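From the pipeline queue, job 12 of 40. The input is one protein chain; the requested action is below.

Action: predict structure.
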Amino acid sequence: MPVNRTQLATALREARAARGWSQAELASTVGCSTETISRIEREAFEPALSTMADLAGALGLTIDEIVTGNSRAKDLRADERNWLRIYEQLPPQARQALITLGQMAVKGRNR
C-alpha cells in the first residue's frame, strides 16, 4: 500500500521543527543523507519501511503517526510508548521473539 507522501512530509517536517532540528541533524541521527530528508519533506521520495521506523524513533513518534497522522500513542503511558517505539524498530524475527517471550511471562505469572 503506498504511503501518503503529503502526510509523511508534513509529520516529518513538523516533528523535526518541534525539536528545533535541522534536516542535517535529523539525517545524522538516523544515519541517512540530508538529501534523503529533503526529498521526503518535498514529497519526492518514499523511504523504505526501515528508514521510516528510524525516523519515527528519532522523532519520538510511531510509524503510524508519521504515515497516517493517527496517534494511538497519545493514549498510552510513557513506558508503553517506549515499548511500541522499540518494537517498531525490530526486524520481524525479533518482534516474534519478543511476543513469544511476553506470552511466556504472562503464562508463568498466571500459574
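Job complete. Residues 35 and 86 are 26 Å apart (CA to CA).
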